[in-house]
């Protein structure tokens, strides 16, 4: 965690106040969007690059992000929106229910991602050239893409995440620019948790398993969990897989064990998270909690 900046893990009003637009900006409007023409819209979260907003609105309200309809709130009115690594400084979130709607513009804080070198990787895992291997990689990309397209009807992100390992050391921060064997590569879209091989990996939240495969070229033993609304977490380099596709899991359930399969130089869990096509830092969801309805 050394060198890590303080996280903008604000909750409700503790964080920057969202600018209010549209119907909810009327003088009579309240933060709960009580004005006629508005809908409830309460937001918290880690509003930064690689972060997210958790929201509460009306059940089944349509959620638009920067004008694009991307999601639907759950039957409890909960939703999540992710901000990718290169997200612009502002994000507009709109909740719409019939003819009524409320819009907010959030400040998405920039983050200075570090640059890290990884040397000594087998060349075939950095710049593969063998045609049979390229074929295999293409096939693996296709099955992963299909799994990441899963959209469970759930809001299993509502109580945030717990860490998937009980003890670990963060060996590589999320979002780092990578120099692999001396060549600049894609940013690292995982947070690496170093732990002894065989350490039990646990589900950080409820969800449904959408993919497991033991020997992916890059990822090694890989498991994907669908937490709902396009939020899918991933567990790489496993030495053992203990769940199967379509299996529901509860927070804390064992998924498998830490290993160093695939592109890895030592035993660790590479923990990843996507919201739709955006890559997020899963550690930012640890301890989060979606806004609840006032009692
Ligand atoms: Zn990693």
From TrEMBL:
CDD domains: M23_peptidase
UniProt-listed Pfam families: Peptidase_M23
Metal-binding in keyword set: no
InterPro entries xref list: Cell_wall_metabolism_enzyme, Dup_hybrid_motif, M23ase_b-sheet_dom
Keywords: Hydrolase
Single Gene Ontology MF annotation: metalloendopeptidase activity
Domain M23ase beta-sheet core: 187-282
Keyword Hydrolase annotated: yes
PANTHER family recorded: M23 FAMILY METALLOPEPTIDASE, PEPTIDASE-RELATED
Annotated protein name in UniProt: Murein DD-endopeptidase MepM/ murein hydrolase activator NlpD
Natural source organism: Brevundimonas mediterranea
């Amino acid at each position: 965690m050394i060198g890590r900046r303080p996280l903008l893990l604000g909750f409700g009003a503790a964080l920057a106040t969202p600018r209010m637009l549209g119907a909810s900006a009327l003088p009579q409007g309240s933060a709960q969007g009580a004005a006629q023409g508005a809908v409830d819209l309460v937001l918290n979260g880690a509003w930064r690059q690689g972060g997210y907003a958790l929201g509460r609105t009306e059940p089944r309200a349509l959620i638009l992000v920067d004008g694009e309809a991307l999601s639907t709130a759950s039957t409890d009115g909960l939703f999540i929106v992710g901000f990718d690594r290169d997200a612009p400084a502002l994000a507009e979130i709109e909740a719409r229910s019939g003819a009524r709607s409320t819009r907010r513009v959030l400040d998405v804080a920039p983050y200075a991602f570090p640059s890290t070198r990884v040397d000594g990787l087998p060349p075939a895992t950095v710049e593969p050239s063998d045609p049979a291997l390229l074929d295999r990689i293409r096939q693996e990309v296709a099955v992963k893409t299909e799994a990441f397209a899963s959209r469970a009807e759930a809001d299993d992100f509502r109580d945030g995440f717990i860490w998937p390992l009980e003890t670990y050391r963060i060996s590589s921060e999320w979002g780092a620019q990578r120099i692999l064997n001396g060549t600049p590569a894609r940013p690292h879209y995982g947070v690496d948790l170093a732990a002894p091989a065989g350490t039990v990996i646990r589900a950080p939240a409820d969800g449904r398993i959408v993919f497991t495969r033991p020997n992916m070229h890059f990822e090694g033993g890989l498991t994907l969990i669908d937490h709902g609304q396009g939020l899918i977490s991933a567990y790489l380099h496993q030495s053992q897989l203990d769940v199967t596709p379509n299996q529901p899991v509860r927070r804390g359930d064992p998924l498998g064990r830490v290993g160093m399969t695939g592109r890895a130089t030592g035993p660790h869990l590479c923990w990843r998270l996507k919201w739709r096509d955006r890559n997020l830092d899963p550690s930012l969801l640890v301890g989060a909690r979606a806004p609840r309805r006032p009692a």
